[in-house]
Design goal:
By secondary structure, this protein is mainly alpha-helical. Helices cover 77% and strands 0% of the residues. It is built from five helices and no strands. Helix 3 packs antiparallel against helix 4. The longest helix is centred in the first third of the chain and has 25 residues.
Length: 113
């Protein structure tokens, strides 16, 4: 009888984990991971829509970090968002394409390898 009560209590604790804030965190994390995977696909295949979706994910993360006053999150999300926006602009303007990637892959003279 004692083990049955423990099992029921364990099941209730597990179910309560998937309610409220914990479930929201799981959903937000899952959507965030999916957006970032989509962004990697977009960067590799020069798809502006996919890169834009990933940038949107960083914009939402930035807003959440701003609301929680998480300075590390604010700085990191802003930097990653900036990189995505620059890549998005380069893809849309025709600067970053599969054909001219070899010409512009180095960011400066010291990185030219």
């Amino acid at each position: 009888m004692h083990k049955k009560k423990q099992k029921i209590l364990m099941m209730k604790a597990t179910m309560s984990f998937f309610e409220g804030e914990a479930m929201a965190a799981v959903i937000i994390s899952t959507v965030s991971i999916a957006l970032h995977i989509f962004g990697i696909y977009g960067a590799l295949s020069y798809q502006p829509t996919a890169v834009g979706a990933s940038a949107f994910g960083y914009m939402v993360s930035f807003a959440l970090a701003l609301l929680s006053m998480n300075m590390t999150g604010i700085i990191l999300c802003a930097l990653f968002f900036y990189a995505h926006v620059v890549l998005l602009m380069e893809i849309r303007n025709g600067i970053m394409t599969p054909y001219n990637y070899e010409n512009i892959k180095a960011c400066c003279e010291c990185c030219n390898f």
